[in-house]
From TrEMBL:
Protein name as it appears in the record: Replication-associated recombination protein A
Cited PANTHER family: ATPASE WRNIP1, WERNER HELICASE-INTERACTING PROTEIN 1 FAMILY MEMBER
One GO biological process term: DNA-templated DNA replication
InterPro entries noted in UniProt: AAA+_ATPase (IPR003593), AAA_assoc_2 (IPR032423), AAA_ATPase_RarA/MGS1/WRNIP1 (IPR051314), ATPase_AAA_core (IPR003959), DNA_pol3_clamp-load_cplx_C (IPR008921), MgsA_C (IPR021886), P-loop_NTPase (IPR027417)
Keywords for the protein's UniProt record, in alphabetical order: ATP-binding, Coiled coil, Nucleotide-binding
Length: 439
């Protein structure tokens, strides 16, 4: 009974798994694997405490295969060798490889042949996005399943089981859990069952019995034992990417309150670097030409945040977030450069016109470089019609301004006016040259 309650209450079969019905429910993929005893290696990813280890334990219990646990970060290659030796002697072994995103190349190279021959069924567990953090060699040999946070009803079911189970849970004690405390446990942990059970066990062991011989757990006791009033994501975990994504999309969608919420989550995790980097990106990607001054203000806010650090950094960053949310939006700049890059990837680039090539070296004139170049500052309004794009692309247009603000509308009008003037004057010049050649 020295093992933690969360460990003792791990499911012994697939039927005891709480939550994750999209994977273990009737007719779903993992249940089908267990029923058919046709297990394949898999990676389970999701937030801490959501059941990755529990699913591995349930699979082993349902199939009667041996389950061995190795941590990719702290255990050595010898630990993997021991599992492989056991698999060779006894047949199939399920290997729960925790923190699989930290698997080193030597360990990976050792493991791959054993995955190929099927002696080891790998269940990798990670809080990070496997498509980002795990090597393609491992990914190609596994199925990837997302493990989701438990909902309130599922958390309450797990609490009830733990309180009732006399063999593995707390059923031997007379415990009365206040309904408000139970609701708090179900809500405040955001689907982290391990945190729920750890808090419940601590509260039980640290609370004396009352005159009726019961342990009465109040909301105040549970709050004190949980010490987890709000979700703060691990800045090195997969939730980090979700928060950053939601942060940018909230600003792009002009939802000031949501953006401030996600900024708070980044800052509460101490992740000032990600907040700063994302804000700078947003300022140019999503606001851009619609309000260039907002980008300048964001740079100033980020610079101030870097100099003063947390917690004061929250003040200039909040100001930047509010301004970006309420600014007009335009993605014309990122769309323009991405369109140009797409053309290049297709092989559309063509030859640079000779008069635009570098002429600042001896022999350039003999190559025809720089000849007939028209220096715009020698002409009225510092502009002259001249083809700058390669001939292959001369009619291409990448920049499509939206005119979502007065500033961008002015850019749009000037861009279109210059483009039209250039095309008309070049066409007239071409026609004049053709007439001269024909005469």
């Amino acid at each position: 009974m020295n093992k933690p309650l969360a460990y003792r209450m791990r499911p012994r079969s697939i039927d005891e798994v709480i939550g994750q019905q999209h994977l273990v429910g009737p007719g779903k993929i993992i249940r089908r694997m267990v029923t058919a005893k046709m297990l394949s290696s898999m990676i389970l990813y999701g937030p801490p405490g959501t059941g990755k280890t529990s699913i591995a334990s349930a699979i082993a219990g349902s199939t009667k295969y041996a389950l061995r646990t190795v941590n990719a970060a702290t255990d050595s290659k010898k630990d993997l060798e021991a599992v492989a030796a056991e698999a060779k002697l006894s047949g199939t072994v399920i290997l729960l490889l925790d923190e699989i995103h930290r698997l080193t190349k030597p360990k990976q190279d050792f493991l791959l042949p054993h995955l190929e021959n099927g002696r080891i069924i790998l269940i990798g567990a990670t809080t990070e996005n496997p498509y980002i953090a795990i090597s393609p060699a491992i990914r190609s040999r596994t199925q990837i399943f997302e493990v989701k946070p438990l909902n309130e009803a599922e958390i309450k079911l797990a609490i009830d089981r733990a309180l009732a189970d006399k063999e593995r849970g707390l059923g031997q004690s007379k415990i009365e859990l206040d309904p408000s405390a139970k609701n708090f446990l179900a809500q405040a942990t955001h689907g982290d069952l391990r945190s729920v059970l750890n808090a419940l066990e601590l509260a039980t062991k640290s609370t004396p019995t009352n005159q009726q011989g019961k342990i009465y757990l109040t909301l105040q006791i549970i709050e004190e034992c949980l010490q987890h009033k709000a979700l703060v994501q691990d800045k090195d975990g997969d939730a980090h990417y979700d928060v950053v994504s939601a942060f940018q999309k909230s600003i792009r969608g002009s939802d000031t309150d949501a953006a401030l919420h996600y900024l708070a989550r980044l800052l509460a995790a101490g992740d000032l670097i990600s907040a700063n980097r994302r804000l700078l990106t947003i300022a140019y990607e999503d606001i851009g030409l619609a309000n260039p001054s907002a980008a300048a203000h964001t740079v100033a806010a980020v610079t101030a945040a870097e100099k003063i650090g947390l917690p004061e950094a929250r003040i200039p960053l909040a100001a930047a977030v509010i301004e970006l949310c309420l600014s007009p939006k335009s993605n014309a700049a990122i769309s323009a450069i991405d369109q140009a890059l797409t053309e290049l990837k297709k092989g559309n680039y063509g030859e640079i016109p000779p008069y635009l090539k570098d002429a600042h070296y001896q022999g350039a004139k003999q190559l025809g470089h720089g000849l007939d170049y028209k220096y715009p500052h020698d002409f009225e309004h510092d502009w002259v019609a001249q083809q700058y794009l390669p001939s292959k692309l001369k009619n291409h247009s990448y920049f499509r301004p939206k005119g979502n603000s007065r500033y961008e509308l002015a850019l749009k009008e000037r861009y279109q006016r210059l483009k039209t003037s250039q095309q008309q004057q070049l066409a007239a010049l071409k026609s004049k040259i053709e007439k001269k050649d024909n005469s």
